[in-house]
Amino acid sequence: MLHHTNQEMLDDVQVAIVGTGFAGLGLAIRLMREGIRDLVLLERADDVGGTWRDNTYPGAACDIQSHLYSYSFRPNPHWSRTYASQPEIHAYLREAAWDEGVMPKIRFGAEVLAAGWDEDQKVWSVQTPRGHVRAQFLVAATGHLSDPRLPDIPGLDRFEGTIFHSARWDHSQSLDCLRVGVVGTGASAIQIVPAIAERTGHLTVFQRTAPHVIPRFDEEFSDADRRLFARMPDVARDLRNRLFWGNESRYPQRRMVPEFLEEIEALADGHRRAQVSDPELLAKITPDYTIGCKRVLLSNDWYPALCRDDVTLETSGITSVTPSGVTLTGGQHLELDALVLSTGFEATDLPIAHRLTGRDGVLLADQWSTGGQAFASVAVHNFPNLFLMNGPNSGLGAGSVVYIIESQIDYLHGAIAHGLEHEVILEVSAEAEEEYVRSVRERAEGTVWLSGGCASWYVDPRSGNLTTLWPDMMHRYRAKNARFVAAPYRTVPASPAREPVRL
Fold this sequence. Notes:
20 strands; 15 helices; alpha/beta
């Protein structure tokens, strides 16, 4: 762990980056390689890594192949297997931060409490627990899977047993031999449940919606494989390319092209029936919506875990939490010793939006009251010299988000370099933003995310719009959004306004 001091800081920099996950670190590496070194990274925790620092639950691993879920400009020939585990990915990010000289630029324990645009000084003024930062450019690289979302269940705060969110796993609390409840059946839960089922006394999984699950084709890389990747980088690069286009080839599933849907539905159905023979359990785990509407999950041990005698899949809703357990919709009360809340993240109403104030005191959360939107997924009118990473319409229903992040890195480097070179403030016009958002919504029409018959965090409930995902192929995002062009931006001189000299 890296520990900060209590010394108050005052940084006056060209660029301030909020967050040190894949996005924040990647942008810092690119800027520093290109000679833009007057920057600071603000990190609320005591280490780098973002979601790969925070999610330390048992069984945590990536569901995108390791050689694709990593920086193209920092290939790692030493991945141990097809799908890397959380510790391995976290170690990769820490090594990148040290090797690239980014670590000394990071202020740990520096959560952004508030950040506002100072029109007089033409800078962003950022408040943190460790002091004040002024920056010409502010980049919010906080992601949309960083702040846990707690379920809205009455009595949750009255539970007297062990309770925590999966993204804040309490390793000091043993679950051995306890009656444990896991709330949720999403991407984290399907890794947690098989990892802890053998040691709990009894495990109850509370399911609201059954997920579609397909096999996880995961293999270890041999020593010979890793030596080959290290000695012949082109081999690893070719593997990355094959993985990328393999993911791209499945995009027609998201457009609900019948033959592509039938193929993946057959895969998921066959996987389910091969692992579960009990008709009652099979009925519970069979989804009632089109595959792909919610995240398609990868697991070989999820269904076998549910088949255990000491595991119960409960599909009745929880009406309340009591000091000793939970009450279900039918009135039944289940006694529990521990509750694990695997209930996702604040992905649509981003917490950072409640801390950013733009021109004329406009709060980003208020401007986004009906859903987040941004030009090129990175720029918002009324917020000069502010850029977002992993912001609206930049997530993926399938594929490596690192590819999207690298596209945004290219764009932001171009924008920041342009602003510094020409000494101008960049603010995207409202017209350009609206036109971009309109084009994205047109792409989203007819996709499984809007027409697949489910409710998901991909869609903002306030508007019904797809605000989280990019609704097209990954390479089309890069073609549209990786190169900065100044035309959509209103530019003004970057120097502060000065009072006229009185003679």
